[in-house]
């Protein structure tokens, strides 16, 4: 590790030690740094990601194994999309993306497939379980400007890409340094593919400790760079911000949103989470308002919901 890398790690450790001493929901001065503009809960059940799709918002409801569809954050008129098309059932939907054809892509985070819906009516949909070794707990999904669909195949410790739901162009990232362990949210942008990656004590996963954000500039190179590393906890969601900043959803002893400066490695600001909200999970930007939408999973035990979680709407962090 370079001298700059050691300094960045030291700053990260200092931030974590400071955060551990702060009561949930508070900053060092006792006030939340970035309180949400609103938080909607009650009607939704354990959402893990929400995006704007066509003229509606769509949220995954992980424990219900369905999708919630609504026009605005009053949640009036909320309905559930029919996810039982052709007699099939969607299992634990986690993350969402829009395909090059404009269809909705949904990962089955505790299942074995990616599902494509032509419409929210659920009348036409397809399942794709990968080629060769089938998906095992596919989580993050994103689509790049060239039309590649990327999936974090979490329990297989790999990243794959393909062109369509037939698996056209199927490729597995070589991962020469075995850095990908349990990938959650993916982001595609002009700089490559970004992965929220955590090292977990599960059989068959690539080994390691803590969590990091990986960036893959060239898929065929097999090289994944560490953009940011944390010594413990899990990174569930990521969102790229201007000026080389990154918003992180952290799941662990202190659930929180963290704002990281990728130039210095510093984690400079964060918003803590009331315990009943549970862990922050997927993050997206609302194209209508520019606001940040963060899904909070709530709390559960043995797959049974205790608190339903909800969706928080944040204004973009300032400079």
SSE order and pairing:
Elements: H1 3-20, E1 38-41, E2 47-53, E3 56-61, E4 66-70, E5 79-80, E6 93-98, E7 104-108, E8 114-117, E9 125-128, E10 138-143, E11 149-153, E12 158-162, E13 171-172, E14 182-189, E15 192-198, E16 211-216, E17 225-230, E18 234-241, E19 245-251, E20 256-261, E21 267-272, E22 280-285, E23 292-296, E24 299-301, E25 304-307, E26 310-314
Antiparallel strand pairs: 1-26, 2-3, 3-4, 4-5, 6-7, 7-8, 8-9, 10-11, 11-12, 12-13, 14-15, 15-16, 16-17, 18-19, 19-20, 20-21, 22-23, 23-26, 24-25
Keywords:
disordered N terminus, Neuraminidase, 1 helix, four-stranded antiparallel sheet, 319 residues
Please provide a written account of the structure.
The structure is a single chain. This protein has 319 residues and is mostly beta strands. It has a four-stranded antiparallel beta sheet, with no helix packed on it. It has a four-stranded antiparallel beta sheet with strand order 2-3-4-5, with no helix packed on it. The protein contains one helix and 26 strands. It has a single domain, classed as TolB, C-terminal domain (Neuraminidase, 6 Propeller), CATH 2.120.10.30.
